[in-house]
Write the structure tokens for this entry.
Amino acid sequence: MSLAEELHYIGPALVLYVGAGIVLVADLASERRAPRWGLTLAVLVVALGWTFALAMDGDARGEALSGAVRVDQFSIFFAFLLVGATLAVALSARAWADSIEQGAEFYALMLTSVASMVLLAQANDLVAIFVALETTSISQFIMAGLARTDRSAEAGLKYLLTGAIAAAVLLYGFAFLFGLAGTTSLPGIAEYLATAPESARLPLLLAFVFIIGGFGYKMALAPFHAWVPDVYQGSPTVVASFLSVASKAAGFAVALRLFYTGLGGGDTFVAEDWAMFVAVLAGLSMVFGNTGAILQTNAKRLLGYSSIAQAGNVAVGFAAVAVGSTIGPSGVMFFLGTYAATNLGAFIAVHAVSERLGTEEIADYAGMVKRSPLLAGVLSLCLLSLTGIPPTAGFIAKVYVFNSAIQTGHDWLVILVAVAVANTAISAFYYLRWVRTIWLDEPADATRFAPSGAVQGVLFASAAGVLFLGFWPSPLINAARTAAETLSIL
Amino acid sequence: MLTTFLLIPLAGALMAAFLPAERERDAKWVALFFTSVAFAISVVVFVLFDTTAEGYQFVESFEWIKAGDAGFSIQYIVGVDGLSAPMVLLLGLLSVIAVLVSWNIDVKPKQYFAWLLFLETAVAGVFLSLDLVQFFLFWELELLPMFLLISQWGSGRKVYSATKFLIYTLAGSAFMLLGFLVLGFTAGTFNMAELAANPVADAFIPMGIVFWAITLAFLVKLPVVPFHTWLPDAHTDAPTAVSVMLAGVLLKMGGYGLLRISLSLMPEQAQEFKVILAAIAGFSVVWGAVITLRQTDLKRLVAYSSVSHMGYVLLGAAAMTDVGLSGAALQMFTHGTITGLLFVMVGAIYERTHTREIAKMSGLMHRIPLIGVVFVIAGLASLGLPSMSGFVAELTTFLGSLQAHPAATIAAIFGVVLSAGYILWTVQRIFHGPAAEEWAHLEDARAWPELVAMGALVVAIMAVGIYPPILTNAVESGIAPIAAIVGAVS
């Protein structure tokens, strides 16, 4: 493989890394404020364009960096998702980034973080996974603390400490796996597993428990979720939206890749043990997330708990993957795609409100429909989608994921789906209570306001996505299915 | 043609919603036009419906979500048979009535009529869908307009009632989805006609659980005691038109689902649990009637009488014979027209007296004789007087169920006695007795929308009562295949 080809494959991540440097240097070099917002957007658009070129390149499937990363339709799917979500966050972040001292650092860190996530979705080797995961996490620790308020600093520190422990646990799990297989490359591990003796079951399970602990932290799965509400509430809202969408998607991407390519998918003799373990985590996440959310009065904190519960929904699909559901992987990916559109809309709406009105209390959303109809409409739509009410994307996503679990025909997965649908009813309570506040309560102050143009654009795009995928989900489902197929081909 | 029926109200909803602000008073004309067109289509469908042919008619379909081999395909498929054709006719008629009785709405009329039309589309989808997932989609879709209509244009504790309605329905339907997915996966199709042709005998979880997961949602919607408490609240606080729709067609979704899905797709389980269903039915009828006797609020009284009368539907369904099932289907139609009319009359009285306290009214027959007469007609129909449609339905139900469930049927017949009691007693208290000076200023019904609404329903009730075959021919053709399916396993 030529150098040019390798560069072509890792192009999107490379553009993002270099772009992060350019943003920083441009800010240092210019006397007046550099057009860092524009620069960041340009970098993201170029990365998106490159990804598009890769996607168009029919058989874009290959390895780079001596097999440490692997570019296929799966990683391209996630590159679109991650870079697209980051673009939406960057578009809405301008006013906030201009208001803090380290605006340029914020953009650079975000670019570094997303670059590492793109790499994470491509990583095909335990070492590459760990390095990419750490690079993205460390950028996020700083981002969480950027607001320089007490709460923000607390969020940053909390995120750092839990992140450090999660990293250590993950590495421990990797060490077990390496010790057993004697290689860090995922295909190599898969080869070992295919012929592994029954006596390897216990160490394998230990390895898996540690690994899922490390990833569960990224995916915000219970019981590794305790940081989520605090960090979401304390971080600047744009950062929280980035964490809730991009970071979670990257976590599931790498988990899918590791599981499918590295651990042999549903074919190995330990697959069912893993599936049950994930199923328990999924159930816990939904129960903890939803019961926690009921009591919240702060919008970001509520979305934090909701994000734990939603991670549980995705994990239902992941558990199905582990026992060989053929539509499981595409279910997880489709869910993450719709979730990105939905949750970004909700978070950006909360961001716009806190920017314009300086409040994050749900009570202050009273009568929002009279004050900013667009924002109120989009936020309500996103909340309906999070609940899973048709005709929104969230409905199809839930049906698809639950479907994949039922498809496997395991009765304990049916129980899990029963837990999931019961949780849907619970979640309706707090999502719709918020919708009710927006539409039915009388505002204390009825002055109208409008988000900035870029934020309006993002809100509009997210609403369009939620509705489009609700009415016509086939394109994304097909994309997810094509992408998922490349996972199982070694 | 059926797709047109589905889309016409939606088009009207969009048009009403986007009327220019200065023409908002014209929203009612838009609504009247579109509901009338839809009603005309439903009449055409009913007239052209061939009662001697087998299977579904007017079928239209296309592949909506295609993920073929993996087993996640959702079809858009609509069609009618002898069971759904009368329901569609009922929906078309009551939607026009609902618009007519909303003629004086002046709070946000654009939104009000838009949601009312949207509701028609959602309910139409439930009656027309021949695919389980599509059915579920429309079932959930109906929640949104109902919630908003009750909570925004209702009275009293409207938000509480709307939320209660929502939570009850959602909690019920969440498990319905689980059941659908199990059914669909075991059989490899979500198509109702195919599922009915080859009922799923054995799934990977006990079919009894699947049956109850699905049936519970219908029982909540019907509603039966003890899941009925949302109904009186929702009715009492809803605007008149919404009460008409709720009692007239929304409750029928429960009965329809029971016949179309619980009985047709899971005949073995239906037979197995029919005694439980009959017991619930008998209890509902009597308990509902006893509670009705104790009501002091006119609207609440009619609401509780619905609980009692919908018990007949379940009783007829539990009989699982040709005659019993026909009775259930007839009762659904006649209850829709009769209780619809009762709610129209309650609304008309309330509009004039501004109270629903039965104790405060007296001698109204002297002041508003026309309203009084029509109320008496509706009341007599409700208690099952021969020559009116209620008699036909109840008699058929009892004939069908007496042999299968003598105890429950006798209890239900006792319910008829009670219902004669509360109807006559109410008429006596409100319309007879001394003409109180307080009500001397009341004006009788003069406005044409009111007169048309009352007239149309009286004609419908009398027509079916005097010449039942206009309805029974269609109903029997729809019931025969269902009876054959459930009869085959006994």
In short: Chain B has a mean pLDDT of 90. The CA atoms of residues 31 and 113 of chain B lie 6 Å apart. The radius of gyration of chain B is 21 Å. Chain B touches chain A at residues 64-67, 69-72, 133, 136-138, 140-141, 143-144, 147-148, 151-152, 159, 163, 166-167, 170-171, 174-175, 177-178, 181-182, 184-185, 204-205, 213 (CB under 8 Å).
